[in-house]
Structure prediction request, 250 residues.
Amino acid sequence: MAGPSPGGEARSGLEVGEVTVDFQGLRAIDNVSLRLEPGEILGLIGPNGAGKTTLVNVLTGFQEPSRGAVTLDGADIGSWRPHERSRRGLARTFQNVLLFDGLSVVENVESGAIAMGLSRQASRQRAEEVLHWLGLADKAERKAGTLPFGEERRVGIGRAIAMRPKFLLMDEPAAGLNDQECADLERVVARIRSEIGCGILLIEHRMALVFSLCDRIHVLEQGRTIATGVPDAIRADPQVRRAYLGDETP
Prediction:
């Protein structure tokens, strides 16, 4: 079965242009520009505190930039609230999975579709399709809070997929996973791109995962862009190695 279709017409990309974010005198993001193309996997890497999650918060509407613009398919979405951005094609997964522990797995995934305005019946059908696609159909009726951590992560991804996004923003999806779970995650992310077709912004500290999956990589340090390019160029960049990668680059 092919993955759930993201729907929608021709897309022109997700973009932040010259974005700056100040927090009470602290500059968290400093004049950053970034573009995510449809169907692309773009890695966003950098040391802790580099501004990666803040940038995702700007994209999803949870953080207002001090300056700069955010556009989706060419439209300025700076005034759109988070739920409006979700309904126009932006979905997000969180480093802390944030499932509804007391609800079943299928109800958790269903909540993503309900948030998009689908009926309860249509949302349940979509959730069941997503769980089958993720290999979690046998866990559908289990309480989400009883799952192993790696399966919790996949349910969180399933909830986002149920929204049929044009662009999926993944904030450290491999955090806390063991090597086998990380390998499973890599296959899931690759399938999201190949079978669903949405663009993916991947924030991740596991460099093997980043270099394996990403078409391009954008590197932040102290809120500023220090490099952007294909994986081989980033791997060899002296400034990136000094700032973040060190000598243990995969």
